Recover the amino acids of this structure.
C-alpha cells in the first residue's frame, strides 16, 4: 500500500501555520482536516496542501513524517517557496 507524507498550511492571526502528517488517502485526509474531523490541532481552520511525498510503506512514511516535523528549516523553505509562487 502506498502512503503519503504531507504538509498543509493555513493562515491565523497574520501567521502561516503548518501541519505535517501521513496517510494512505490524501484526498480523504485533507477533507477531514477541512471539515473539522481531522487532527485536534487542525480543527476550525481551512487548510491547503502544499507538499506531498509518496512512500512505499507505512514505516517509511512515519520516518519521513518525523524528519519533516522536526526539521523546521525545511518546513520554512517549503512554505516560503509556496508563498512566493502563490
Amino acid at each position: 500500500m502506498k502512503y503519503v507524507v504531507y504538509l498543509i498550511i493555513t493562515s491565523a492571526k497574520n501567521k502561516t501555520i503548518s501541519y505535517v502528517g501521513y496517510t494512505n488517502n490524501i484526498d480523504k485526509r485533507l477533507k477531514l482536516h477541512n471539515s473539522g474531523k481531522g487532527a485536534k490541532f487542525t480543527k476550525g481552520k481551512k487548510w491547503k496542501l502544499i507538499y506531498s511525498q509518496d512512500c512505499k510503506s507505512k514505516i517509511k512514511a512515519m520516518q519521513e513524517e518525523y524528519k519533516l516535523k522536526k526539521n523546521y528549516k525545511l518546513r520554512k523553505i517549503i512554505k516560503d517557496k509556496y508563498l512566493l509562487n502563490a
Observations:
- Residues 23 and 29 are 7 Å apart (CA to CA).
- The beta strands are 3-12, 15-23, 48-55.
- Helices lie at 26-35, 58-70, 72-85.
- The radius of gyration is 13 Å.
